[in-house]
Each structure stands twice: as structure tokens, then as C-alpha cells.
TrEMBL record:
<dbReference type="GO" id="GO:0005789">
    <property type="term" value="C:endoplasmic reticulum membrane"/>
</dbReference>
<keyword id="KW-0813">Transport</keyword>
<feature type="active site" description="Nucleophile">
    <location>
        <position position="311"/>
    </location>
</feature>
<feature type="binding site">
    <location>
        <position position="135"/>
    </location>
    <ligand>
        <name>FAD</name>
    </ligand>
</feature>
<feature type="binding site">
    <location>
        <position position="148"/>
    </location>
    <ligand>
        <name>FAD</name>
    </ligand>
</feature>
<feature type="binding site">
    <location>
        <position position="207"/>
    </location>
    <ligand>
        <name>FAD</name>
    </ligand>
</feature>
<feature type="binding site">
    <location>
        <position position="175"/>
    </location>
    <ligand>
        <name>FAD</name>
    </ligand>
</feature>
<keyword id="KW-0472">Membrane</keyword>
<feature type="disulfide bond" description="Redox-active">
    <location>
        <begin position="61"/>
        <end position="66"/>
    </location>
</feature>
<dbReference type="GO" id="GO:0071949">
    <property type="term" value="F:FAD binding"/>
</dbReference>
<protein>
    <recommendedName>
        <fullName>Endoplasmic oxidoreductin-1</fullName>
    </recommendedName>
</protein>
<dbReference type="GO" id="GO:0015035">
    <property type="term" value="F:protein-disulfide reductase activity"/>
</dbReference>
<comment type="similarity">
    <text>Belongs to the EROs family.</text>
</comment>
<dbReference type="GO" id="GO:0016972">
    <property type="term" value="F:thiol oxidase activity"/>
</dbReference>
<keyword id="KW-0285">Flavoprotein</keyword>
<feature type="active site">
    <location>
        <position position="314"/>
    </location>
</feature>
<keyword id="KW-1015">Disulfide bond</keyword>
Length: 383
């Protein structure tokens, strides 16, 4: 850990992990309160969409016999601990919880999207995110490995040099999301003795703690999503949002001021020279327009890969986070801060919900990483 901290903090021009840890102590209770609000906790998605990239019979399955990586002996465990049950979503709602669920937008639809958002149809379901936490589900083995592979493979750009900044950024973004998912599943790992979920240091070290680059990518994502929230506020988009939905109209000003309060201490990160992530260095070279378009298309493909995830709860949280990152990219790369274009920028209710929940996922990951660090120090001291 000490070696890792030293590597990360060596460039004093950057925001340090320590600074982010401190900012997160401030942000954690605020974002926790936000995601427990009715507006932010109900997520809309299609859980039954076919995988667009390969046939469902091609060996990707969500059966205990496929989930062989982390718990070896599924067959001796009771039904309640089988991956099909652990990965299930509780309390699915088929009817929209409100009449005008998607009515939150500004301007005309002119913005390019960085992810595919499920349209509302007969298969649409509504899920309470608070009642279906992201945690260990037993999903694993060849099928989840292949899904991660296909996501990383989207990083094969046709344009630009092999080692271009944008390609590196794409990889780090996906890797940071992967790190966050691994942090949550090891922080809420199923203990077969106590039958309860809790932090498993050994699993965390094997998947995250022993890989400084993975941790660095997660912190990069934290800054990326925080900067998107800041920009939403500073470009005036937050002020222009209208919660047309009757149930939430009365809460509009309270939810907006909570969001503003959340980003307040992060605003000094607007000085991009001090950031772990600076969006202004990307898409600047010759042919940048084409490269950005290819980047966008490839990220949309990553969002479509989520329909290939067979574990329902993993698919749910995969979709929430990919929509959150897609929204953050759209804000950072398509929203113009300085001219009237920002008037036309559109953000939907589902995108705002995903953005805030993705920030919560990263914030909880950072808090869990700090807790794992303490567990690690204690374990070392005891040796
Ligand atoms: P995996 O995590 O499957 O990794 C595969 C390979 O990728 C590794 O061998 C390594 O080479 C590389 N790798 C690993 N981490 C990183 C990183 N951060 N950056 C770069 N490369 C890396 N399981 C749950 O229990 N709960 C969930 O909620 C859940 N959600 C998921 C959501 C999605 C979209 C997907 C695809 C999977 C999800 N899973 C979930 C499964 C989980 O991510 C793992 O795939 C599974 O636990 C098996 O882990 P593993 O140790 O075999 O390696």
C-alpha cells in the first residue's frame, strides 16, 4: 500500500488520492441521501433485450455450473445461495411508478448520445435500486470473462496512432468501471459461514488491491463523473431542468439544491491542470472529429454488451453505470460551456438518475477502499 500511495502521489501537480479521499468524506453522506430519494432510486430498463452480438445459445449462461470461479462447490450450497437466486432482482415493477416518467429535459434533442438507452415498451421494468444493492452474485467463469473481454476489445480504434491518448483513456475508463464493480462485490461478499454479506480482504486484494493501475483508473473515473456534475451545474443546465413529473415537481428545487451542494467543494477541481483527468487534452489532434465519433460509437457498443450479461442484478448495475458514464462523456464532450449551444443540450431523467447513482457507486468504492486499507494494515500488524 505504501509503495502504491507513493506512486500515485508523486506528481504534486495532480489532485492526490488523499485529497479525493477527503472530498469523499464530505460527499458520501450527501450522495447517499440523494440516491435514497424516490426520484433517484427507481431505474427504468429492459431486462429482456436480446444480446445483439452473439446468440444466447453460444455458451454464455447464468447457471451455477457456469459460475465456477469464486465458490467451487455450488452444488452443496442451498438454493438460496445459488447464482440464479443471488443475481435475481427483487420487486420488479412493470407499470411506470409515475405517469410522466421521462419528462425531464432542456432544449431540442440535438446532442449525441454515448450510450444506448432502453426505450419504453412492453418489456420495460422499473427497479428499486436501494432494494437491489450491487453485491456478490456468483456470476463468473467463462461467460463473465468473455463479456469483459468483448468490452475491452471495443478499444481497437481504426484511427490515430496505436498508443493515442484517447485509446488509453477508453481503456482506463472501462478498467475503472471494472475496478468499481470488483470493489463492490468484494465489499459485499457472501460469507458462507455467517451467511451474511461483508468485506472480504483476500478477494479485494486479488482483484483490486494488488493492482495500483486499477485503483488509479477508479480514481480517474471518480474525477471524471464529479467534473461532469460540476459542468452540468456551471453551464446552467441544472437550473434549466424541469421536473415535469407531477410527483416530483414539488421536490424540484430541493433536489437541485442538494445536487449543487454536492458539487460545491469539487468546483476547485475545475482547474483542470490539477486533475487526474483533463478532458481538454482529448480529441485535439488532426482528425479529432472522426476519432471522437469512433470513440462514441465504440462506447455505445459497450452499452449494448450489457444486454449480453445473463445475471439480472449484474445487468441492472452494469446498465446503470454504463448509462452514467455515457452521460458524463456526453456532458464533458458535447456540452458547450460558453455559448448558446448549451441551451440545446438535452439530458433525460434516466441519464440524470444514472449519473448520480454512478457517482454514488464510485463514492462508495472510494470509501470501501479506505476501509480495506485499514483491514489490510490490521492484518499486517497481526502477522
Ligand atoms: P474478472 O473480474 O471477470 O476479470 C477478467 C479479467 O480481466 C481478469 O482476469 C483480468 O485479466 C482482467 N481485469 C480484471 N479487473 C480488471 C481491471 N479493473 N482493469 C483491467 N483489467 C482487469 N459479479 C458479481 O458478483 N456482482 C456483480 O454485481 C457483477 N456485475 C457484473 C457486471 C458486468 C457488466 C460484468 C461483465 C460482470 C459482473 N460480475 C458481477 C462478474 C464479475 O465482474 C467477475 O467477472 C466475476 O466475479 C469473475 O471474476 P474474475 O476474478 O474471474 O475476473
Amino acid at each position: 500500500w505504501d509503495e502504491y500511495t507513493a506512486t500515485v502521489i508523486k506528481d504534486s501537480a495532480n489532485v492526490t488520492f488523499e485529497e479525493i479521499n477527503l472530498l469523499n468524506v464530505y460527499a458520501r453522506p450527501l450522495v447517499t441521501r440523494l440516491i435514497n430519494e424516490n426520484f433517484f432510486k427507481i431505474f427504468r430498463l429492459n431486462l429482456y433485450k436480446e444480446c445483439p452480438f452473439w446468440s444466447n445459445s453460444q455458451g454464455f449462461c447464468m447457471h451455477k455450473s457456469c459460475a465456477v470461479d469464486t465458490i467451487d462447490d455450488w452444488k452443496n450450497l442451498p438454493d438460496i445461495w445459488q447464482p440464479e437466486t443471488l443475481g435475481r432482482i427483487e420487486g420488479l415493477m412493470h407499470d411506470p411508478p409515475t405517469t410522466n416518467g421521462s419528462c425531464i429535459a432542456t432544449g431540442i434533442k440535438s446532442t449525441k448520445d454515448y450510450c444506448e438507452i432502453d426505450e419504453i415498451n412492453d418489456e420495460t421494468v422499473y427497479v428499486n435500486l436501494v432494494e437491489n444493492p450491487e453485491r456478490f452474485t456468483g456470476y463468473g467463469g467463462d461467460q463473465s470473462f468473455q463479456i469483459w473481454q468483448s468490452i475491452y476489445n471495443e478499444n481497437c480504434f481504426n484511427l490515430g496512432s496505436e498508443q493515442c491518448l484517447e485509446k488509453n483513456f477508453f481503456y482506463r475508463l472501462v478498467s475503472g468501471m471494472h475496478t468499481s464493480i470488483s470493489t463492490h462485490l468484494t465489499n459485499e461478499y457472501l460469507d458462507l459461514k455467517t451467511k451474511e454479506y461483508g468485506p472480504d480482504l483476500r478477494q479485494f486484494m486479488a482483484r483490486v488491491g494488488d493492482f495500483p493501475d486499477r485503483l488509479e483508473n477508479l480514481y480517474m473515473n471518480y474525477i471524471l463523473v464529479a467534473k461532469a456534475l460540476i459542468k452540468l451545474e456551471q453551464a446552467g443546465v441544472l437550473d434549466r431542468l424541469r421536473f415535469c413529473d407531477g410527483d416530483f415537481q414539488s421536490q424540484e428545487s430541493q433536489l437541485k439544491s442538494s445536487l449543487k451542494k454536492l458539487v460545491e467543494p469539487f468546483c476547485e477541481l475545475g482547474d483542470t491542470s490539477r486533475c487526474l483527468f483533463n478532458e481538454n487534452t482529448l480529441f485535439q489532434s488532426d482528425g479529432a472529429g472522426q476519432l471522437k465519433e469512433e470513440f462514441r460509437e465504440r462506447f455505445v457498443n459497450v452499452s449494448r454488451v450489457m444486454d449480453c450479461v445473463h445475471c439480472d442484478r449484474c445487468r441492472l448495475w452494469g446498465k446503470v453505470q454504463i448509462t452514467g458514464y455515457g452521460t458524463a462523456l456526453k456532458i464533458l464532450f458535447e456540452l458547450d460551456n460558453h455559448d448558446s449551444l448549451s441551451e440545446d443540450f438535452q439530458i433525460s431523467k434516466i441519464e440524470l438518475i444514472a449519473l448520480v447513482n454512478t457517482f454514488d457507486r464510485l463514492s462508495k468504492s472510494v470509501a470501501s477502499i479506505n476501509n480495506f486499507k485499514q483491514l489490510y494494515d490490521k492484518a499486517m500488524a497481526a502477522e
